[in-house]
Each structure stands twice: as C-alpha cells, then as structure tokens.
Design goal:
With about 425 residues, the chain is α+β, with helices and mostly antiparallel strands. The protein has helices spanning about 1-30, 30-40, 65-70, 115-130, 135-140, 155-160, 170-180, 200-210, 215-220, 255-275, 315-320, 345-350, 355-365, 385-390, 395-400, 410-429; strands at about 70-75, 90-100, 100-110, 230-235, 240, 245, 280-285, 290-295, 300-305, 310-315, 370-375, 375.
C-alpha cells in the first residue's frame, strides 16, 4: 500500500513538474516581443518604473542620477517583467558601474510587495481626501507626513512612537541619530529636523512608517562595525544596498567547520546587538535563514533584512526606571508548528535593561534542533561529528539556549556556547 502511494505521488509530482515547464514555455511564447524588449531596454531609467513620479511619497532621490545615467542595470532574469509574480518581495540583483571602478553587484529593494505599496497609496489618499485614489503628490501635503514643517526643530518621540518596530519606543537620542545620519539629504550631519527640505522630511517620515530598513542601515552603518548590509542610496521607491553574498540557507549542508564558524558569528551578532557601548539594544524580531547572508571572500555573516528591528535605549530605561526595569527578562520558548516563529512582547523589550531575546531568536530559529526551515529540522549545527555528539555538551547548551530549564539559564548558555564554538573553531585550524 505504501509503495503504491509513493508511486502515485511520484507520478503526480512529475506531472506537476511537466505542467509547470509547459506553462512557462507557453508564457515565454506569448511574451516573445516583451522578452526581447526587456533585454534591450533598461527599465531602471524609467521614472514611472522606479516610482520617481510618486515622490515625495517615496524613499529618496540620492541615487537618481546614477539610475537615470544607466549606471544600474538588472541582471539576466531580473529584466523579465512577466516573471515578477515570482518575486513577491520585490528584491532584485543588479549591476552598478562606475567609469574608473568597473561594475559590482548590488541589491535593489522596493521595501514591500506590490500590494503593500498600493495599500500605502490608498492610506495616503484616504487620509487626505477620504477617497482611495487621488493625486498622491498633493495628498502628501495633507497627511501627518507633512505635519512637521520647517518651524519644527526636532523629530520627537510623541510624533512617531509606534509607527514601526524601529520607533516602537523611541528615545530622543535615537531620533536625533536617525535624523543626523539620514542619507537622503545633502545636508546630513545635523540632528535638527528644520535643516531638511519639506520633501526630505516627508520622505524620511514615509520611510519610517512604511519600512524603516533603510533608516536602520543608515543609523547603524556597517562602516562602524554594525552587522548590517551597507546602504547605498535610493531613487523613487527603489533603494540600493550592497550585495553581501549567498543567504545563510545555502550553507546548511556546508562542512562542519564552516557551520561552526557561522554559528559563532551569529551568537556574536546576538551579543553585539544586545550589549554595546552605545547602550542601544537592537532586537531582531524576524529571524530566519533568509535574513542573513555570508560574504564570499571574508565569510562574514551579515543581517540583510532589517525591517523588523526594534531599538530600545538602555540609557532611557535606566533613567526612567519603569516597573521591573532591572529584572532580567527571559523570553518564553515557543514550540510552534510554523517556520521561524518567535514569542516576544515589544513593551517588555522596551522596558528592561537585560533581555535575552536575541540569544533566544538565534538559538531557536537557526542553531538548535528546534529550528525548522523549508522542511528541515535540526538547525545549522545538525549532524555534529561523532565525538561531539557523544560528548553531549553542544546539544545541552543549544537546548538550554533555546528552551532553558534553569532560571536565567539562557544567559549562561549563550555565554558558554560562544566560548565552546570559539574553542571548536580554534581546534579546527
């Protein structure tokens, strides 16, 4: 019976595979003209394609000259528009060229799906006119994005609190940092909001509300040692970031020594984002194999999706002393049947000085036996060598880090895990 079922499902799989190939071939035939046109035309020079015509309801224009000059081009399949339905996240690989520097690979992002971008347009129109469709440019001047005019000196917490994860509980220190490091203005370097043009202020607030990833990359730049991709610039509703490398998932079956090195880096990222000299805690609320990448040359692990990063100001917490502010917080283990799920309270993340969320997120969703992704289980450190498996220490530390049995056990397990992985890495050299 089981053999019959496996044969049946095998035939079904082959039939579906053949159907997909035939469908794709038909689509290619139907779009032959568009296919050749796509390869001949650089759509990244088209103002409407990159939504430059929707500014200031956009993310910036610091890289528009490079777009319009044809210095940025899609790579191969990225040029085929009829395949966009497969690219739900609107993330593209492209080549960027400078006359004296040659070309290099970059990543272009629309920061949302087509539906999410359409939804923000409707919200802007409804707030301004009460109708779902309108003149978007005129409508922007009638929304909260234009409320902060040239007379407003600072961007303050009460204005933007709760707009996105980045500013779920913003301090004045964080907002000054965001404004001072805002890259979509020629006058960056000042924390005074009034130094920005009206359109620049609206673009900043639009980004902060819709998808603050560019502001995370700008405020905590890779040049200063933060583990994020480098922000390059924007034009309309397309932002450009540095290409890091293949995603972490590509290394799931890498040699054991490589996976140990990657795991150590992930734990070090968790530590850096939790405890640093700036006293900003950056909590990763969306942790999966797709949200990290590995450099091809240096093997460095980098966060490549920073949309869902909550920033808590530890100095402000110590100053205000909310209830239980100095009680160490332990994140609750969540044994769910979905991929990359996490349990957390944003309000608690914002009100405690010591929080183990990042250790919990990395251990549960990436390293331990509880990590599930694309039908696999076991995490990045699956199938250790026999002597390590027999020893049992690694499995015990990973389990305590993901699902602690002792009070404050995760804090100690995370520390011991970093030390143990470093030791394994040294022994492998």
């Amino acid at each position: 019976m089981l053999r019959f079922l496996s044969l049946k499902f095998g035939r079904l799989y082959r039939c579906l595979k053949l159907l997909f190939v035939v469908s794709l071939f038909v689509i290619l035939l139907m779009n032959t003209h568009n296919l050749f046109a796509s390869f001949q035309k650089n759509e990244l020079t088209d103002r409407r394609f990159i939504n430059l015509n929707k500014c200031p309801a956009c993310f910036g224009n610091s890289w528009c000259r490079k777009f319009m000059n044809g210095q940025i081009t899609f790579e191969s399949w990225g040029r085929l528009r009829f395949l966009d339905f497969l690219n739900v996240k609107n993330v593209y690989f492209a080549q960027y060229g400078e006359p004296r520097e040659g070309t290099r690979r970059i990543v272009l992002k629309r920061l949302g799906s087509n539906q999410e971008l359409a939804d923000i347009d409707q919200k802007i129109c409804k707030r301004a006119t009460g109708r779902p469709r309108c003149d978007l440019i005129q409508a922007m001047y009638k929304t909260e994005f234009s409320r902060l005019n040239g007379d407003v000196r600072l961007l303050t917490p009460e204005v933007v609190e709760g707009w996105s994860d980045l500013v779920h509980c913003p301090s004045q220190r964080l907002l000054d940092r965001i404004v001072r490091r805002y890259a979509e203005t020629k006058d960056s370097g000042s924390f005074l909001l009034k130094n920005l043009k009206d359109t620049e202020r609206m673009q900043l607030l639009m980004t902060l509300a819709f998808n603050p990833e560019p502001l995370v990359l700008q405020s905590f730049p890779s040049d200063e040692g933060w583990p994020f991709a480098k922000y390059l610039g924007a034009c309309g509703r397309v932002v450009a970031v540095n290409y890091v490398g293949e995603d972490l998932w590509s290394f799931y079956h890498a040699p054991w020594e490589k996976r140990v090195d990657l795991a150590l880096q992930l734990m070090e990222i968790a530590e850096q984002l939790t405890n640093n000299d700036f006293e900003f805690a950056l909590y990763l609320l969306d942790v999966s194999f797709d949200n990290f990448a590995v450099g091809p040359r240096d093997g460095k692990v980098i966060v490549v999706d920073a949309e869902n990063v909550l920033v808590a100001d530890k100095r402000l917490i110590k100053q205000n002393k909310p209830e239980n502010w100095d009680v160490w917080y332990e994140s609750r283990f969540e044994d769910c049947d979905k991929e990359a799920c996490l349990s957390f309270s944003k309000d608690i993340l914002c009100s405690r000085v010591n929080v183990d969320h990042n250790y919990y997120a990395i251990c549960q969703n990436l390293l331990s036996k509880h990590a599930t992704w694309r039908g696999t289980t076991g995490g990045l450190l699956h199938d250790p060598p026999t002597e390590i498996a027999k020893d049992g220490r690694l499995e015990a530390m990973l389990d305590e880090c993901a699902n602690p049995k002792k009070r404050y056990g995760r804090y100690q397990a995370a520390k011991e895990l970093r030390e143990y992985l470093a030791q394994l890495g040294n022994n492998a050299r």
